[in-house]
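Troubleshooting log. The previous run stalled partway through. Resubmitting the same two chains, unchanged.
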Amino acid sequence: MSYQLKILNHPADLRIEVEASSLEELFQGAIELMASLLYKRVNELVKKKKLSLEKDINIEANSLEQLMVDSLNEVLSLSDINNAIFPHCEINDLKDNKLKARILGIKVKRFDLEIKAATYYGLKIETNNRQYKAIITFDI
Amino acid sequence: MINKSDIIKINDYLWEIPKGYKDFMKVSARFYADEVLLEDILKDRSLEQLINVSALNGIYKYALAMPDIHEGYASPIGGVAAIDSEIGIIAPGMQGYDINCGMRLIKTNFEENEIKQFLKKLAREIYEAVPSGLGKGRKIKLSDEELNNILDEGAKYLVKKGYGNENDLEFCESNGNLNYADHRYISLTAKERGRDQIGTLGSGNHFLEIQKVNEIYDEKAAQVFGLFKNQIVIMIHTGSRGLGHQVATDYIKKFVNLMPKYKINVPDQEFACVPFQSQEGQEGFKASAAAANYAWANRQMITYYIRKAIKKVFPSLKDDLDILYDVAHNIIKLETFQIDGKEKKLLIHRKGATRAFPPFHPEIPFKYQEIGQPILIPGSMGTASYILKGLKEAEESFYSVCHGAGRTMSRHEAMRKMSSQTLKEELEKKGIIVMVNSVYNLAEEAPLAYKDVNRVVEVVSKAYLAQKVIQLVPLAVIKG
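Second attempt completed without errors. Output:
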């Protein structure tokens, strides 16, 4: 899977750009990259320990943009409740503004960053030459 | 981007973007700043965001912003919208995700020289007593009944259970309890997030500071507030934690989907809103109040932990430490104003703005009636904080003032410009004790990432929104 993360400038909150070569990868990338924002040493952790937490998410929305925000917020809620990060996401179905996915995670002692929510502010999902791009602002 | 030439200077501290600047504006947008702060404000998108606030249905008189205004999402941070409660909307994004993020100040009777040698021990005890950071050291797991009681009654419930005294409620905005709150409008997910976060500080810009009274500007007000030179006080900055974030998330999502039903258009989806008088609007209002109650209970439980920590260091201490005041800076509340000789209820949305009631206002404690409400303004890390008093002239800002210094730089840029270790060393060189869970992110909150709080407070004072009573300086910083 290939996706890329870029941190954009925002004076108070966290604005990111995610790029991927398909819509599925874009959603997968946004969810997995959020784990690396919550917990910086995610790669080290994943190498050492098994992702023992499994959660299914089913989200329906009125637009693709809303689906992105709602999906990220669902994962954030699960992270907060379980004190866990979810660095692995399997997209099972993504069409008609509906997402079915399984996320795999691991408990952490503490997060490095408090993300309060993914917001609709300045939210964009664009496609160009088979590249998909999302710009997302998190309240931190 | 807005240019300076688009802005009308009302006076040296007040500026206006007139109603006609954009077609969708329903009222003018006004903000408080001096020339220096204005230059900072023009560097980000905060004024564009303020213009968007002016488009909200039912907005009364002006979209307003305080001198610590900076770019957020939906409203700028520092934004205030007074909405006509009969015809207007309720917009959760206009108070932000950290519902009832706010400040509390605890007073001791110690002078600095009496406890200087114990300061490090005291800071350590407080650091260990109050769970800070993210997901660390959660001490209490609430039952469903306890959580529902907190949502409905706020700090009042904890005081009834022995975690404080009646005076704590007296010196708290709304007595720490919005009585129209209703836990039935809080989702199970939000409750699950809130179950083990009561009495926790969180991270980001939240903090505890041991401070001393450094300067007194208004002797009479300081005396009534029970403040004296070199006095040791403890400042708390935190909010409703994951529960509040989830309540905001739930209702913003709900309202995004409801806007077509009510034929509401907003310039930015994050302003998702419904008519305040609609059933959904009333439910959102009650849910927001429940999250606000949770935040007051959170600061109450932290106060309880702090009192225990202080008694551990000073076992002979007999009385509970008093609270100067507790006030929110992210909140939606109905407040009463005299408009054209009649009482009118406005739904005040404050996002990064502090309520600042004047003398003789019925909603401030009897003890402060002649002085006005104490207003708690924190500085950035390692810099001064202020206690102000409310003024009647602040009616023009719907009795709202700034909530801090206001950011000028992203957290990433701050981290690029200064290492956290260097910042820690600089604070320690100034004699400030630093207790943090992880030094790694400390520089995100470096003073260089913020406006000068002294200037922000000076603008508030010169605009006659509030007056300075005392200045506080930090002796110990405790962060998650």
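Takeaways: The interface with chain B takes residues 7, 9-14, 40, 62, 65-66, 70, 73, 76-77, 80-81, 83, 108-114, 116-117, 119-123, 137, 139-140 of chain A (CB under 8 Å). Chain A is about 30% helix and 45% strand.
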